[in-house]
Request: fold
Amino acid sequence: MEKKKKISFTQSKSFDAIMAAVMAAVLGLIFGFIVMLIANPDKAVKGFQTILIGGAGRMPDVFYYATPILMTGLAVAFAYKMGMFNIGASGQFTMGMYMAMYVGFMVDLPPGLHCLAAVLAGMIGGMIWGFIPGFFKAYLNVNEVITSIMFNYIGMYLVDMLVQKNSVMYVSSKTRTDYLPASVQLPALGFKNSNVNIAIIIAIIIAIVCFIVLYKTTFGYELRATGFNKFGAMYAGMNSRKNIILTMVIAGAMAGLGGAFTILAPSSIAGSSMTYEPVNIIASEGFDGIAVALLGSAHPIGTIFAAIFIAFIKCGGTLASLYGFKPEIIDVVIAIIIYFSAFASFMSMIFKEKISGLFRKKKKQPAEDAGA
Reply:
């Protein structure tokens, strides 16, 4: 009986994905450092060190910032496995945030139930905003990139209009929403001067569930099969239309949860809460989610680490302002990471061949020594 050839880790797809992510992150950081050198050569080294290690002293905040971008990252990654690019995570995030706020302000429920109802409302808001592009893709073959990016703008303007017209939610003198009642806020994890809460644990659990669904269930196999070859999947009897809609609904639900987790987070200042300011700007969490999904190779577990990494350098980037650097330097780094993530897989293959070559040389050397 012929034995299966054992594949080494350096030749596996997991190694390719890890190397692609590492190379994209390293190249992004290098280019960020070059920008810092151009902007302020004298303080570039100290500013860059702050970006690299500044987040280590603010780990609770890192996990707080990682929570929404982990959810939007999962929304992008899940759709990507179906062969779809869910660029509408920002709109789904915003609708989820609004629905959670609406329940928080307009519905009176007991503390535990109130929070749960708001979270579920946020999920439903994202599901609705994910369903529409999915429906157009499934039945009218309209490219999901076009519809979902348009729904980013529709969601943003619609939510801003609805918030400003609601006198219970909106405080015109402060040009932002009022504080949410304590009964609807998520339970804090007990870290002083930090907004980190139970949502990070829920988000990680959701990522693990996504992994199980995608790689351990028939439904997940159908999604990935359709993503690999739509016509082949249809020939095999898979319902591609249903799978497209379900994928976008699930993706929207995760982005909507990200919005709910953001607005329902407890404030570190007693008697206050998170607020929303309707300023007609698309939520950046959706686009950060694209970076997270690409950096994590659209893998649910990889997305967890990618979200923590992006949040880590964001926290460090805010401290770089102590050396005269604008926080936008991190947006430059993230943008470059997205850019390099698109073709880092190709470079990792070249790098992998060099590493594999080194391993082969090391194996040959002892054999030659023994022969001598």
